[in-house]
Structure to design on (1011 residues):
């Protein structure tokens, strides 16, 4: 158990090396190796969960090794209630992703090698506690993603791939500037735990370009993370990348990569610059509102089903942002409303996980229909309910989960975000209910157009969803149902950590230092 | 130290001279088609020279030849970098098909003499030596750029190089003569003394002369606005020479610039890690910041529009000169350290990229983006290492290029608030550069027919590509040995008068 986190990170690299030695003709062996690697990783994440002490809000399973002493860089890993669910989600979705991409024909070897490299990058970001290491993993994700979209994607794949890369790199460069600023202002350390302790005090009173350093660094890091989330107006890379990417990559992009942004904001911005939270929270809630409404409106206008699902991600991540902003409720200005803060931040983190499962499901289902009909035009279908009853049923549940129907997991996290934010941002919460309306509208309207009405003659022999596809989607469906009825297991994992984050933020609730 | 005593400290250079002479003589006994053998002689000679430098480099700091040049760990570091670059380029020259029609004796002789000139460049502390060493390097480079006698482009390159070179070194000489006239000395330390003890520090004459001297340095590192020769010369020269010009003279000129600005225009405190004190009130930090900013921006923006990979790499090397110059005005040990580290990282990734260009040209006879179509599938090794070099040149982790940029940016942030905007500008430039570096990757993997046959280049070429690729990757993950070496090399000879 001592090196369990390292094992999680480096297992995919071992798989990648193994795949590199398999001749490229043996495609099934390559696929199996990838499945074994990610499957083992998934099992290890479950093992980690079973050994995890949910009462302890601090970092567990820590690993530390000297790396570059002259720059005070260390190999430092750890997991807490914020990252553990994301780690499990990563393990699960990559495992599922292997089966979603089972039918990839082109350059199988390269595909799975890059797929596993991406896995290492994602896992590394969630587990690293050294900012330098964090940044390296953050960037390591980019190149595999570029290839996976650019090589195995749709017709506009090259443009989508480079746009994704340029946007993210732009954000990470600003992030690097912020990281270096933190390093030199806070006693030359990259250690996130050390910085969390030192930075709030050390940054106080320092000016950067005549502004408070806290504000400048907050914004630099926020832009880096916001591009990943994506927060309006940095979201334009997302629909394109989602639509062009192959199904499995869309699943991972929506299911995990978008979460990295929210995770980064909570881990870094909230941890290192807690007083900045008070300064920025209203803007955060407003951006959340814009995401909710704008994402909903755009989704409503889409003719392409995959693009609709892509915009629904923009819409859904908006709820997370609103929930995050609710942390300030625990401050003195809002009457020390700890309950609201817990609901808001917990909802935001829960929403991350739920969106991970729901959007993964939606993208897999879009992939299923695309595989059969070779197009995704919503208007091009009709009456599929009679032709593919099982598929219709599953899609119905997925769509309902997406629109936040009570009894499904999405409802709980969205409700928590709103409950938390309501005492502080009444206007914003009320306005964002428009988003919920839009949310329901675009999903139901799309569902109606695809599955009801006259059956399009072209599709009278469309085969039903097959076993492999069911295998990828049903587990996600069960999780969505289960957490919708009984969210306690999830909330147990996160609650101690959420409390410690909220207490940390509240204890530095001083505008004085800015 | 007088001339006779100096000789005992000068054995790496003496050994190099012997090697050069041996190359000339050995060439006389070879038939034209066998003349490549002299290349191996040079390579083995240079390996011996590098051992000599290693043996000598144990922290000695002294002047040699009555204060003409110095021997200090800083110069030894750059000598090592230059020898390494020359060794790699020499081996690759032997496998550059462009050169097949020509006798190679003169080629390798000239390469050896350039190396000798660069040795002088990194150790000069006297204005006369500064000028002489620049000229030695330049004149040999002119001939090498025009080595392909039958190629009009190569001839054009040589001629352009001569014209620009003569012009900028003329301006530089004029500037140097002003400095001598104003201070009465050609020795760096005496000039520094004269400038700080009189009120001439900020005089207009000094400002003008420093700007003129910058023309000479700027020409050698190909900084904007002295860069106009670069694309044409780089495109026309034999590719192995282009690779050499993009690394070794740049390193030499940067070393010289560091010495000049920190020992003549500042009190040298930077080297002691104290943060230098400017001798003069010159705004030279601002001037160099501006040059660095414009250099990287112009290099990157123009590189986007190129259709020839070699020319694109020429502009990219301009941009990299800009990144390196960024850390110059910080005037701290950090800044110099960052430049040295960057030079070392840049050596591998940039030479590697040019070696791939040579490999492709040997195969397709072309250098345009179209010649790279589908290459990633046809030649997996070449495609893979080229991707690595492009990623590293962009500065993405985990590659050497990222570490280089990281140290440059860190030194700027540590340098104070007035440099923060340079970090932002440098970062945004990396984003711009991503576009054209990835274009190579895109063409190699996303375009063209996917061929089933797999080609591998010859064994030596494969070995060389791997040899440059491994440090490019490994130094991005663990660079402590290099960092330690540079830290020990950050010792300058400082004369107190």
């Amino acid at each position: 158990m001592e090196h369990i986190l390292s094992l999680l990170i480096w297992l995919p690299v071992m798989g990648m090396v193994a795949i590199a030695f398999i001749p490229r003709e043996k495609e099934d062996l390559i696929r199996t190796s990838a499945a074994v690697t990610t499957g083992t990783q998934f099992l290890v994440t479950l093992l980690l969960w079973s050994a995890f002490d949910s009462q302890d809000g601090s970092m567990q399973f820590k690993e530390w090794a000297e790396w570059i002493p002259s720059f005070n860089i260390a190999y430092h890993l750890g997991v807490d209630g914020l990252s553990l669910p994301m780690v499990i989600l990563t393990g699960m979705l990559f495992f599922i992703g292997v089966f979603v991409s089972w039918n990839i024909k082109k350059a199988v070897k390269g595909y799975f090698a890059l797929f596993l490299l991406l896995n290492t990058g994602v896992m590394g970001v969630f587990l690293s506690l050294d900012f330098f290491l964090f940044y390296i993993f953050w960037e390591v994700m980019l190149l595999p993603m570029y290839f996976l979209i650019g090589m195995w994607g749709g017709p506009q794949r090259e443009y989508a791939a480079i746009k994704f890369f340029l946007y993210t790199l732009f954000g990470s460069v600003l992030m690097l500037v912020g990281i270096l600023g933190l390093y030199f202002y806070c006693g030359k350390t990259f250690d996130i735990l050390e910085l969390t302790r030192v930075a709030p005090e050390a940054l106080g009173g320092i000016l950067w370009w005549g502004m408070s350093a806290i504000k400048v660094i907050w914004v630099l890091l926020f832009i880096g993370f916001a591009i990943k989330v994506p927060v309006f107006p940095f979201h334009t890379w997302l629909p394109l990348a989602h639509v062009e990417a192959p199904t499995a990559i869309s699943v991972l992009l929506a299911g995990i990569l978008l979460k990295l942004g929210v995770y980064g904001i909570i881990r870094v911005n909230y941890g290192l610059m807690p007083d900045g939270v008070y300064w920025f929270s209203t803007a955060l809630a407003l951006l959340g509102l814009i995401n909710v409404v704008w994402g909903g409106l755009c989704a409503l206008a889409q003719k392409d089903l995959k693009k609709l699902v892509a915009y629904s991600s923009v819409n859904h991540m908006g709820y997370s942002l609103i929930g995050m902003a609710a942390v300030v409720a625990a401050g003195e200005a809002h009457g020390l409303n700890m309950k609201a803060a817990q609901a808001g931040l917990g909802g935001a983190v829960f929403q991350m996980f739920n969106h991970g499962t729901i959007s993964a499901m939606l993208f897999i289902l879009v992939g299923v229909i695309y595989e059969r009909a070779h197009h995704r035009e919503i208007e091009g279908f009709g009456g599929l309910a009679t032709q593919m009853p099982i598929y219709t049923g599953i899609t119905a549940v997925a769509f309902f989960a997406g629109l936040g129907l009570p009894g499904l997991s999405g409802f709980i996290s969205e409700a928590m975000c709103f409950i938390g934010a309501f005492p502080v941002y009444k206007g914003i919460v009320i306005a964002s209910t428009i988003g919920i309306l839009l949310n329901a509208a675009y999903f139901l309207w799309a569902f109606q157009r695809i599955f009801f009405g006259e059956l399009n003659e072209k599709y009278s022999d469309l085969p039903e969803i097959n076993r492999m596809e069911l295998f990828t989607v049903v587990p996600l469906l069960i999780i969505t149902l289960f957490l919708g009825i009984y969210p306690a297991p999830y909330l147990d994992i996160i609650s101690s950590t959420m409390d410690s984050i909220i207490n940390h933020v509240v204890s530095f609730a001083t505008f004085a230092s800015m | 130290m007088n001339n006779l005593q100096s000789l005992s400290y000068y054995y790496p250079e003496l050994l190099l001279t012997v090697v050069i002479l041996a190359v000339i003589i050995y060439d006389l006994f070879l038939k034209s088609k066998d003349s490549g053998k002299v290349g191996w002689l040079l390579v083995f000679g240079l390996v011996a020279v590098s051992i000599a430098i290693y043996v000598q480099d144990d922290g000695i700091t002294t002047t040699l030849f009555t204060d003409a040049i110095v021997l200090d760990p800083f110069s030894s570091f750059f000598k090592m970098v230059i020898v390494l670059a020359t060794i790699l380029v020499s081996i690759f020259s032997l496998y550059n098909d462009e050169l097949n029609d020509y006798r190679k004796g003169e080629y390798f002789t000239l390469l050896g003499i350039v190396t000798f000139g660069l040795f002088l460049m990194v150790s000069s502390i006297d204005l006369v030596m500064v000028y002489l060493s620049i000229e030695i390097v330049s004149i040999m480079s002119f001939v090498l750029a025009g080595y392909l006698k039958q190629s009009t482009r190569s001839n054009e390159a040589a001629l352009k190089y001569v014209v620009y070179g003569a012009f900028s070194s003329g301006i530089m000489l004029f500037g140097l003569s002003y400095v001598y006239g104003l201070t009465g000395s050609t020795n760096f330390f005496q000039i520094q003394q004269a400038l700080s003890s009189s009120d001439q520090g900020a005089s207009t004459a000094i400002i003008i002369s420093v700007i003129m001297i910058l023309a000479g340095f700027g020409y050698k590192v190909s900084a904007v606005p002295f860069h106009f020769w670069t694309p044409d010369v780089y495109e026309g020269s034999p590719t192995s020479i282009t690779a050499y010009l993009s690394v070794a003279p740049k390193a030499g000129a940067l070393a010289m610039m560091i010495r000049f600005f920190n020992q003549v225009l500042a009190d040298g405190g930077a080297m002691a890690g104290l943060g230098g004190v400017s001798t003069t009130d010159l705004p030279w930090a601002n001037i160099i910041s501006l040059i660095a900013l414009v250099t990287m921006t112009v290099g990157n923006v123009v590189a986007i529009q190129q259709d020839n990979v070699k020319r694109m790499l020429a502009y990219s090397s301009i941009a990299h000169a800009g990144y390196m110059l960024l850390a110059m005005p910080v005037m701290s040990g950090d800044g110099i350290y960052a430049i040295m580290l960057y030079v070392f990282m840049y050596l591998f990734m940039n030479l590697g990229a040019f070696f791939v260009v040579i490999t492709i040209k040997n195969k397709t006879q072309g250098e345009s983006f179209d010649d790279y179509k589908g290459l990633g599938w046809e030649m997996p090794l070449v495609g893979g290492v080229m991707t690595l070099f492009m990623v590293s040149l962009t500065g993405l982790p985990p590659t050497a290029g990222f570490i280089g940029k990281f140290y440059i940016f860190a030194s700027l942030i540590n340098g104070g608030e007035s440099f923060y905007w340079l970090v932002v500008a440098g970062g945004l430039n990396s984003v711009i550069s991503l576009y054209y570096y990835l274009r190579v990757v895109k063409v190699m993997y996303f375009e063209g027919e996917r061929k089933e046959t797999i080609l591998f280049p010859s064994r030596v070429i494969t070995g060389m590509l791997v040899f440059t690729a491994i440090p490019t990757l490994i130094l991005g993950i663990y660079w402590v040995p290099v960092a330690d070496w540079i830290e020990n090399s950050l010792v300058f000879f400082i004369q107190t008068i």
Notes: The CA atoms of residues 180 and 186 of chain B lie 6 Å apart. Chain B has 20 helices and two strands. Residues 271-275 of chain B have pLDDT under 50 and may be disordered.
